[in-house]
Structures are given as structure tokens and as C-alpha cells.
Amino acid sequence: MLKRNVQQRHRVVQVITKFLIPMILLFAFYVQFHGDFGAGGGFQAGVIFASVFILHGLIFGEARTRLVLTPNALRILMSLGLLLYAGTGVVSLFLGGNYLDYSVLLSDPISGQHWGIFSVELGVGITVAAVMVSLFYCFSSKRNFVGHISHPISESELDSDG
Amino acid sequence: MVEWLAFYNDWAVIVIMMAGFYIMIARYNLVKKIIGLSIFQTGIFYFYVGLGKVDNGTAPIFLEPKVIDESAANVASGIAEQTILYSNPLPHVLILTAIVVGVATMALGLALIVRIYEKYGSIEEDDIQAIDSQFICQLDDKK
Amino acid sequence: MFFNNHFSVLLVVLPLMAAPICVILRSSKASWLVALISNLVIVLLSLSLLSHVINGNVVRYELGGWAAPTGIEYYIDGINAILISVVSIISLATLVYSKQSIRKEIAQPRHYLFYAGWLLCLTGLLGILITGDAFNVFVFLEISSLSMYMLIALGRERRQALVAAFRYLILGSIGASFILLGIGFLYAATGTLNMSDIAERLPLVNGSRTVIVGFSFITIGLLIKTAMFPVFSWLPNAYQFAPSAVSSFLAGTATKVSLYIFLRFFYHVFGTDYSFGNLLLGNILLPLAVVGFFVMSVVAVFQTDIRRVLAYSSIAQIGYIFAAISMATEQGLTAGIIHIINHAFIKTALFISVGCILYRYGTANINQLGGIMKSMPWTCAAFIIAGLSLIGVPLTAGFVSKWYLISAAIDSGWWLIAAMILMSSLMAIIYIGRIVEVFCFKNSEAEGVAKVKEAPFSMLLPLWFLIIVSVYTGINGDVVVDLAKFSATQLLDNLPGLNNPVGNPL
User: Fold this and answer.
1) C50-to-B58, C8, C54, C197, C259 alpha-carbon distances in Å
2) Full domain range(s) for residue B51
3) Is the ipTM of this complex over 0.90?
4) Domain count for chain B
5) pLDDT (tens digit per residue) in C390-430
6) Is residue B84 part of a domain?
7) Chain B, 11-50: which have a CB under 8 Å from a chain A CB?
8) Is residue B54 part of a domain?
9) Which chain A residues are Cβ-neighbours of C130 within 8 angstroms?
């Protein structure tokens, strides 16, 4: 019943949100991938990316957002982001450089630097976005299911890319 | 007096930090404590931001230098181009990291508060202490 | 031993990468295995590092290939290498122990979080020990602290554990923020964050008020983090309510690593002359340390929960260490480092044995544990040996460190301090003796004591490993003493800066 009421009352907001979501996503990608030419980078892009899902959760109800992006997927995404970050460093170790020395990644040091920072920032972006959404789930679900145990993972993961 | 005012950013930092510190000490509500901690840390962030600011410096994004004088002598000696003053980006980058750490601390603190509220039914430190000491008294009675 | 320069960075990267793998795997057993294997590799790497550094080498590793004052540098000399080995060995031992112990303390679906948090905490602790960059110290400190808060909140007495974790979070964050502010002032004064570089540039701005302010902020922040006497209030609750594996790990490593930051900053970055000569840090620390170890030993006598006794005794031991290092002499520093190492092993062993008792009896209240020597002989024997070591009975590790402590005090002409240390050791006899008396001679009140079995082998193994290490270092004290002397002289010699690296005699 609540669900129908919400949908009826917020029809305008919902339609506008549907228009906004792709644009915000596009902007997040712009900030992410344009980060090495201008202001931007993984942190900011991750938060912008996560804000889409938070907006979706606020307007359409958190239960529907959970169907789009399940907590399990978030758990794996945040781990993969961290692994991508640390893995880039390990690859450069194997290629004979120091840890996180991007110059050795490709034959040309400058494009090596470019792709190195690209993949590191991508890792940061994925982790930050996943952590932000899971923080949102963690706190928003409390009101509905008191006593439900959510994953405190988000806290321990967040600091790891700091 | 004027000399003192010249350090207005430091005064702001001191006021913000001490406000946060006071809240942490004087308030027994756990959420308020976290808010106090957050304000306290914000004071430190401002300190770092102030540290990196160079008077009249722009944001440290590379700009094409403007050519102001094209006479051959100046080009040869390398002063043909206008120098651009940038702010120091390092403290700002450092504080970006510290802000992330601060967010993590706040998220963890709030998550703990949610759990504390579930278990104790209160987030006032006095109540929590009263419940705990009552609990210990009951244990002693059982023996 | 085989050594490669990249070992230093792998020490941080391995646990950092193992943590998300644990989260992906999500199964209790698999994540334990991942944690164990990565920890085993870390122990091997750290021992190889130690054997390399002990020959007088200093490892410098440039992250990302950027040269030192610009880029972040990992810097390892004697003291780091020793503590890295100690922390990784203790972590391995407690990790072996944790497999059984957390089955009764943490719900099965959360086990993988426990191991992930553990690995992140290890990342932070090792990172603090390895890095040569002042700001990196702050970041790693927060990584280890945040995961430690989470681990404490998983405790078995969930309610109190949550409050204990929250208190630790507030105080720990204040401490870390003060350290951050202090580092900011140092950066303002010197324009660099590399610790060796700061050390070199500080004499140029000697007497600057900015440096003094930074110095004070770092001192206060570190005192909170080490749980020094007046600002220890987070520690007893955290140790008591955390899962027993976590309190063993916490007791052995967290405060020791904070002590390391203290040594690094005040002996290396600021320099001994500056901090203990000009600014008279010793005059502030020493009274606090003496009051601390004395009062806390008295408080420990009146506790009923064994974990709380051990927690207060930990604060007292930190007092001893501070008393030793505030002498600012080579003997004092050596005694402090010896005590850091020995106490780390002893306290971990004590907490593990209490954890074994907790595993079988479900309580650590001294009044309910009469006569358990009969049912758990191995655990109690280990507790008694470690307890004797804590008191400082000859042939134990504790004796070696107390001996050096007292002789360092006498060398500095501080007879009163030496007497106080002896008095407080007597106090340790009371609080350990009280527990041992209950274990061995008091009749059991609780029914069914005889039915309780000895703790499982996988819990006894790490316990006795730690006991054997501490007894061995007690009988053959030279091992630890030589290491400590070596690193103490290295610290006091005002380490070589960037411009004259070791191995390149000028």
C-alpha cells in the first residue's frame, strides 16, 4: 500500500529522476576518465556514480535499488576495485620496476604512466562507488528491519584505499 | 591588532577545532560526540588547506604560459613568458586522503551507534552506563 | 638468507591484497587459509629483511620509482626490522589460535569479515613500521585503528564491546587527529614529509615555534595512542570485551607499534638532543611513566576479571617502557626496546591462555575459576610461566628486560626509579599470584569442572610456541639484547640522512 502511495505522489519526481540518472552516470564517467587531463579522479567519480543509486533508492524505494545492485555484487565490486589497485602495482613489480612504477607498464614510459594511473583510478572509483552504496544500504535498511545484521564490511574497506 | 588579524585562517582553525573538541567532551549523546569529532577534524582540514594556499596563486592545473614580451633578448633569457603562480597542491592532496579517513571514521562510528541503539535502546552515555552497572549488579545478585 | 629490495613493499601489499580475497571468498575456512598463508609468507619475508638489516644495511625503497624527498619512501633499519618480525610472528600465532576461538565468539557468517579486518589491521601495523614518510604514518595508523575498532566490536559480550569500540574510536581519532596536526606543522616548518629529510632540515629552523607546536601535538597524540598513564581510559574495556583473539593481537602489537612511532619521531626525526635536551621531554614523561606503572599495578590487584588484570598490567608495562626510553641514554633505550619485544610475546601468551580458559569455561571471572589447574593443566602451566615472566623471575624473558631496565636506571643515577620498578614488580607478584592461587589451590565452586577438557591442540600450539620463545629469550637473553643494542645505537647515532646513505662512508 505504501508503495503505491509513494508512486502516485511522486510521479513527477520519478519521471525527472529517470531523465537525470543517465546524465549523472555520464558525468561520473567523464570525471573518472577525464581525470588525468583536468580536475577529477576516482574518488569524485565514485561518489558521483554512487549518488545515482542513492537517488534511485530515495525515489523508488531501497528495495527496488537492491534488485538493481545487490549487496552481494557490491561486496565483490569493492574487493575487485581494491585488487585492481593493488594488482597494478604488482604487475609493475613483475615488469621490473618498483611497486606502482607505471613507467614500466608499457614500452613508452609516458603512455605507461597514463595507463597505470588510469587503472589505479578505476580501481579507486569502483571501490568508492561500491562502498558508498553499501553504506547507504547499511543505514537505510535499519529502519525497516531492526535487528537485521548488515555487513560492516563497508567500514573496513573504506579506509583501505585512503 | 592588525598583525593578529592577518592570521585569520589560523584563528578560524582554532575556533572550529575547539568547538568540536568541546562538543566531544561536554555532550553525552553519542551522535553529538561523532558530530563533534567531525567538526574537530574539519578544523584540521582547514589548517592544511590554508597551508597550501599561495597568495594570488591559482588552482594547480597546468596553464599555457602567456607570452607577454616577444623581444628577442627576453626570449633568449627565458623571461618572455609570464610566470604563473600556483597554490601548493601537496597539502590539498594530503587532506583529501585525511577526509576519506574522516568519512570512514564517521561511518564506522555511526554504524556502531546504530548497533548500540539496538542493544541498549538509548544513545545517551549516562543511560548506557546505568544499564551496564545494573547488569553487573544483577550478575552479583545471582551469585 | 635470500633478500630482495622488493620484500619491503610486499610486506604491505600481501595482506592488503589478501583482505579483499577473503571478502570475495566469504567462507570461514577459505578465508582463514588465505590469511594464514599470506601471514606465513610475511613472516618469512620479515625474517629475511631482519637478517639483511642486522648486517648494518638500511633498506630504502622508492615507491613508484620517484626519488626520495619527492616520492614516498620506505625506510627500514634495525628497530623497524625487529618490530616487523615481532608483529608478523605474533599475528601468525594468534591467527592459528583464532580459528578455534572465534567459532564460539563470532557468528559463522561474519568470520570472513573477521579475517579481512585482521589482514587490513596487519597491513596498517606493518605499514607504520615500514614507511619513511610522516604522512604515510598517519594513513597507516588510521587503517590499523579503524579495522581494530571493527574487530573489537565483534566481541562476544556484544553490548559492552560496542561501547568499548566506540570509546576507543573517539579517543583514537582524537589522538590520530593530533598527530595529523603535528605533521602539518612539521610540513609547514620544513616543507617536506620524508622523515629523514625532516630530520635533516629541522636544525635549520631550530627554535622555531612552529616546530615546538608540532612536537607537542605529536607527543599528545602518541601518548593517547600508546595508552600512556593519564590517557589510557580506552584500553581496559577494549581488551576486556574484544574477542579473545583480537585482544591477544591488540595487546601484543598495537601499543608497541605506537611506541615505535614515538621512538622514530623523538630519536630520529626531532633528534635526541632536541626532544630530550632542549625540550626536556624526559622531565614530562618520566614522572607520568613512574606514576603510571605504580598506580596501574595497584589497580590491577583489585580487578576480578583476568582480562582486566592483564589490561591494567599492560598499561603498567607501557609505563616501564616510557621510563626506560625517557632516560635518553643508550642503556635506557636498549632496555626499552628489549621490554617492547619481550612484553609483546609475554602479553600475547597471557591473553591467549585466558582465551583458552574462556573457550572452555565461558568466563574469565577469577571467582568462578577455582581449581581449573586439574582440568586444563597445559593452559594453566602456560599462564603461570608467562605470569612469572611478567613478574620478572630469573630464567624468563621478563627477567632480562627488568634487569636491563634497572641497571639502566642505576647507570643514570636514578636510584629512586630503580626502587620504584622493584616495588611495582612486587605488585605484579600479588596480582599474578592471586590468579595462580585460584587456579591451583582453590576448590572448584562450579559444578562439572572435572568434565571440562583441555583446550584444543590448535589453540595450545601457538600458546606454547610463544611460551617457548619467551623462555628461550630468557635463558639465552643475548639474542634479543644484541638486536636491541644494535637498533638502539642506530637510533641514537642520528641516522644517516639522504645525502650520506649508509654503506657509503664519507
Assistant:
1) 47, 11, 6, 24, 19
2) 3-58+90-142
3) no
4) 1
5) 998 888 899 999 999 999 999 888 899 899 999 999 999 99
6) no
7) none
8) yes
9) none
